[in-house]
Amino acid sequence: MTLAPSILAGDRLALARLLSKIENNLKEGLVSLNELFPHTGRAHLVGVTGAPGTGKSSLVNRLAHYYRHPPQGQTAQTVAIIAVDPSSPFTGGAILGDRVRMQDLAGDSGVFIRSMAARGSLGGLAQATASLVQVFDAAGFEIILIETVGAGQAEVDIARLAHTTLVVEAPGLGDEIQAIKAGILEIADILVVNKADRPGVESTERSLKNMLQFGHPTSRSMRLEGNVDCGEDAATLDASTLWTPIILRTVATQGDGVPELASAISSHYQYLHETGKWEDKERARLQNELDGLLKDVLVTRWRATIPRSKYQDALNKLVARRMSPHQAVADLLDGGSSR
Amino acid sequence: MTLAPSILAGDRLALARLLSKIENNLKEGLVSLNELFPHTGRAHLVGVTGAPGTGKSSLVNRLAHYYRHPPQGQTAQTVAIIAVDPSSPFTGGAILGDRVRMQDLAGDSGVFIRSMAARGSLGGLAQATASLVQVFDAAGFEIILIETVGAGQAEVDIARLAHTTLVVEAPGLGDEIQAIKAGILEIADILVVNKADRPGVESTERSLKNMLQFGHPTSRSMRLEGNVDCGEDAATLDASTLWTPIILRTVATQGDGVPELASAISSHYQYLHETGKWEDKERARLQNELDGLLKDVLVTRWRATIPRSKYQDALNKLVARRMSPHQAVADLLDGGSSR
């Protein structure tokens, strides 16, 4: 028997055990994942990204606390937090340890926090995150906050996993950050100016507004890149159903602006459902995962067909500059191998 | 006739044309690359990475200027700069435009600057960078500075392309950056504390020294992850031939510390050659490129074998939660397809 039935029944220990099995790529983890998958599709996935120093972690903690302790008259929601750290490829454990994050939320079975560091390839990290999301989703967590540390392509890729993407900024973090925004901004559903008690908040907010006018794809068509087949994703957006990104100020350390942020996240959730974009996002996300897995399996299978000496021989010729990389690939795939 | 002979003869216009062809994935670009490849292997590849706001671009410009105008008695070297911006997946052009960078170095045929933005997949970006490096190398550029904007996994992957990796820090960029360092630090051959005229430089330098003692793999074995076969790369490092990372202060805007930095880069170059590590790095780098290309070609070939309707059918079942992602992959690869 797998861990899946216990997880579906709300067993948190079984949940933690499965997460470890998945992170360690154990076969048992895969079997449980397959069993849990039909029970997924209900959670609201919220990505939180932005440059270092913007206070993302504090904001995520505050949000989780708000969902657990909403104002009177509102129902508390269960929250899972996945803190992804793609900048740490060599260290085994995540830098922001689980313990540090737990202080505010300790002892509450309606919150589950998991930190992940990159292991091996980037595809591996995005895939591992997708698997963790599925486990939390099947286990009945209503909000899944996916926090990425850093501000690069890896973060964008992981943010694509989410239904709603928050991009966190802070005043006074240097000019280069302004440039980076242009790329990150385009994935933002909600822009949060955190540390809004600091000087320069007006100018940060103003430059975000300006960049939104230039950079946000509300006036053009969008497609998810890199898919095997994106024919059905390339539909042009209808102007009447466009989401205009919301800009909000917060001071996470004080909790200021957090109710407004939770309300904006909820508005985006409603927007996605009312416009049918929830289904579009689900489809794009699952296609992304499917394509990543396909690549991995194809390479693994090919590896099994080729003798190691043949691979080493091609590499040797490459290092000696007797073949170019493209020529070495052609040699390996077509030049007298068993396939 | 391809562009390769003109490029080998020093034609800068032909060089620019080939770079565009490669960036646009034209077949002609590939043919020229294959012709140029035997002429590569001479350039010193220097990666420059670090968090936003550290002043990497100014530092790279200053370094290039120094190599072009060295102190009397030293020979000027030719320099190519590749500015990689992985944080911008949607915009077509790089954010730091070529023009902005050229001001100091305009009109000098011994310098060539190229900005690149991410197009599609991350593998694509690393591969495109590798191709650009090969063109500059074959064209006779002696130093190739590869600057990455951002501080995540993408930057680490691109830094792996280089023989010598500079990690740039700056005082006062927030606490979270301290955490990120732990991952980035381990790839640093030279640590540059730029903006060293700012308050807090001593504390930044001290924390770097502390982290080096903990984090740098001078006391453990290192291997390049994610390769098809890393048997020959996994050799344990010999303590007598270890490189101890150098920490240097610079003020790029004033040029302070730039001669010392150039000297440290030169020392690392000598170290690599004297210890035989140059060859190890070349081998690991080319293997990395080979593996990336192999994956791409395997997926492209597989796509051609499968009817579009079959792929869409699997995706539909996935979205309906009737199959998990792993089950969909098994279905596509084994379940009644032509393979």
Key descriptive features of the protein:
alpha/beta, 339 residues, Rossmann fold, 2 domains, homodimer, 13 helices
The oligomeric state of the chains shown is homodimer
Query: Which regions of chain A contain 5 or more consecutive residues with pLDDT less than 50?
Result: 88-100, 216-237
Output the CATH class name of the largest domain in chain A.
Alpha Beta
- CATH superfamily of the largest domain in chain A, by name, is P-loop containing nucleotide triphosphate hydrolases
Largest interface: A-B, 93 and 93 residues
CATH topology annotation of the largest domain in chain A: Rossmann fold
Count of helix runs of chain A? 13
CATH architecture of the largest domain in chain A: 3-Layer(aba) Sandwich
The structure class of chain A reads alpha/beta
Structure description:
The structure is a homodimer of 339-residue chains. Chain A folds into 2 domains: 1-37, no CATH class; 40-216 and 238-277, Rossmann fold (3-Layer(aba) Sandwich), CATH 3.40.50.300. The first copy, chain A, starts with a helix and ends in a 5-residue tail after the last helix. Chain A is of the alpha/beta class. Chain A is 48% helix and 12% strand. In chain A, α2 (12-23) runs antiparallel to α6 (122-138) and α4 (56-68) crosses α10. A 7-stranded parallel beta sheet of chain A has the order 3-2-4-1-5-6-7, sandwiched between helices. Chain A has 13 helices and 7 strands. The first copy, chain A, has helices at residues 4-8, 12-23, 27-36, 56-68, 98-102, 122-138, 153-159, 175-185, 201-215, 258-275, 277-305, 308-319, 325-334, and strands at residues 44-50, 79-85, 111-117, 143-148, 164-169, 190-193, 246-249. At the A-B interface, α3, α6, α7, α8 and α11 of A face α3, α6, α7, α8 and α11 of B.
